[in-house]
Amino acid sequence: MTRDTRAGYAASSPELEQWLARHIEQGFDAESLVLSMLRSGYDATFARDTVNGALGHRAPVRQPPAAAPAPARQPVLQAATSPVAGSNVFRHEGREIPILFALEAPRVLLLQNLLDGTECDALISLARDRLHRSPVVNPDTGAENLIDARTSMGAMFQVGEHALIERIEARIAAVTGLPADHGEGLQILNYKPGGEYQPHFDFFNPQRPGEARQLRVGGQRIATLVIYLNSPPAGGATAFPKLGLEVAPVKGNAVFFSYKLPDGGLDDRTLHAGLPVESGEKWIATKWLRELPYRSKG
């Protein structure tokens, strides 16, 4: 996607076309679609022309208010994770993905059956032979270090590395409305009994030099999707301590949460943790989503 830094993004993509088609089908009107694109940083004229083209000029698009464009690009994530009233599912290539619950602020969704059992098992099989102790980014140096707060084993995959991963990434893009190239590589994590990840944020602190380095390869992280690849007998929930919320790990389900605020700030209510696994083991797949196309190296 190209960008005019003075006016905003002004290039189409397959993901944008799919997003428009899906939301037109769901009943969004022209003005709502244009405003969503403006909040995502698209150029106003490009947004109006693109929406008019997608609608086949069936509905007039009113001039949006001058204050509507966001100061920095925020992808169409917010609108794509807000189906019209009465719609409780996302749909992608014949698959229905029910929404089990939704919070508005911060935006948190629990999705049922994002993956089927066969896909979950296949991801675990792909990861088994490349598991290593999971590091975290040192906030001062940017180096990846091992710490006691994170005890999982992990396997990182490149975007589109495998046909299965490419298919899942397309599904994630359809649900979030964010192009696949805005996602970091899928990370498969395994927690043994007692394994946990203590409370933390997924976004980067630009005031810390080590974390600021991460912003050069795709901008800030704006949302996370955690997919549960198995159902541990006990423990292993994803907890949001500031929300009083715990999400039980159920095979095939996924929890999505976004932390980029409309004013460009970061929502600290998305503090979260992987609670200790009490029985059995836990497998998850994590997808971190960026505000810009992601490059694995700066």
Automatic annotation (TrEMBL):
Domain Fe2OG dioxygenase span(s) in chain numbering: 182-291
Cofactor(s) in the UniProt record: L-ascorbate
Coiled coil start-end: none
UniProt keyword annotation of Oxidoreductase present: yes
Parts of the chain that traverse the membrane: none
Molecular function terms, GO-annotated: iron ion binding; L-ascorbic acid binding; procollagen-proline 4-dioxygenase activity
Gene3D superfamilies reported for this sequence: q2cbj1_9rhob like domain
Superkingdom of origin organism: Bacteria
Leader peptide range in chain numbering: none
Keywords of the record: Dioxygenase, Iron, Metal-binding, Oxidoreductase, Vitamin C
Protein name from the UniProt record: Prolyl 4-hydroxylase
Species whose genome carries this gene: Cupriavidus agavae
